[in-house]
Amino acid sequence: YTFIMCGIFGFVSKDKVKAVPIVLEGLKRLEYRGYDSSGLAVLTDSRIYSKKKSGRIMELEKVVSDDVMASIAIGHTRWATHGKPTNKNAHPHGDCTGKIYLVHNGIIENFKELKSKLEKRGHIFKSDTDTEVAAHLIEDFSKNYSFEEAVRLALKSIVGAYAFAIVNANNPTTMIVARNSSPLLVGFSESDKFVASDASAILPHTRKVVYLHDGEFAVLTPSDFRIATLDRKAVSRGQELIEWSQDEVGKNKFPHFMLKEIYEEPSAVENAIRGRLIVKDGIAKLGGLESVEGKIKRLNRMIISACGTAYLAGLTGEYMLEEYGGIPVEVEYASEFRYKKQKFDARTALLSISQSGETADTLGALKEAKRKGVLNLG
Question: Residues 220, 195: contact at Cβ < 8 Å?
Fold first, then answer.
């Protein structure tokens, strides 16, 4: 099934700082999202310093300079989709001029058509990835438009899922980020802004964040931040406060996240049922289901849709729901559910399970069920 998972990290600062250690720290917190290669691009004095390397982030550390001063930088840790995990296919990717660099999480579905058109226009590609198309596309539009407008037009030309962080040496105080079906957030401290595909990467710096929505892009400068849709409609969105702490997302004393999660199981179960059991009546109160309680009571069929380990959790849920709920339950791989001819009625519900909340096929199954008017649970 389609599995889109790479890590993006970046920052925009009011001051020039040692950029490389900050990016490397952020990437290490995202390394679970991909570890076949990594890279960074640092915008310094209208030039871009960029290094990338196949292998774990420790391999990148060996080839970068720690003393590069900059106020804008982006980084990436990759899980390969298009192109083998090699140095040339690692992110960031640049354009022909060496002025535009970007990092990407997602899949550009129409990259072959775009690449063919760009090659006919004289663009020379250095990698086997779909991502590099975006850099050349922005370069092509930049011949006639501003950096921001070139990015917007490039995004309008792309079909697929993406989260981008983009820098341009000709616009040394600006970073542009964008999202469609891949997660991206912006964090805010007193003097800096941080971009990441996961909040865990920015928790050492801030807990104040704004999440981008699908079809939006944002322009970041040391003094400004604004969001717009790809149709140029301005978006106003307030900051949210992340409620969990840095310790909760770290490994703490454990050598591996899996071992940490095993030891967390008793407290995880306790937290899941806290406030939801009415002991004196011997029943549970699930507040999130109250608005659809009537529909749930009429159900005669439930479909569980998930991928990977979430699918295995669904198989366990199948037995529990059939035993205690008394209704037939089917468990479907989300990637197959999307393409099957499903027959639904008003007494069917879809229960989607995802550990990350961003599994592309599970989200696709959810959207398909919504389109058909099926009751959706998660």
Answer: yes
> How many CB atoms are closer than 10 A to CB 241?
8
Determine the Cα–Cα distance for residues 340 and 303; give it in Å rounded to an integer: 13
Query: What pLDDT score was predicted for residue 4?
Result: 59
The burial class, CB within 10 Å (0-12 / 13-18 / 19+), for 76 is buried
- Residues 204, 208, 213, 217: what is their CA dihedral angle, to the nearest 10 degrees? -80
Q: pLDDT per residue over 40-66, tens digit each? A: 999 998 799 999 999 999 999 999 999
**Tens digits of per-residue pLDDT, 268-312?**
888 888 888 888 998 888 888 888 988 988 999 999 999 988 999
Q: CA–CA separation, 366 vs 377, rounded Å?
A: 9
Structure tokens at 224: 């400004």
Beta-bridge partner residues of 37: 54, 78
- Cα–Cα distance, 45 to 122 (Å, whole number): 28
Tokens of 280: 């004196």
| CA 95 – CA 97 distance, rounded (Å) | 6
CA 312 – CA 130 distance, rounded (Å): 32
The three-state secondary structure class of 220 is strand
- Pick from 78, 178, 65: nearest CA to 130: 78
Concatenated DSSP letters of 212-223: PPTTEEEEEETT
Mean pLDDT of 75-84: 91
How, if at all, do strands 175-180 and 348-352 pair?
unpaired
DSSP three-state, residue 345: coil
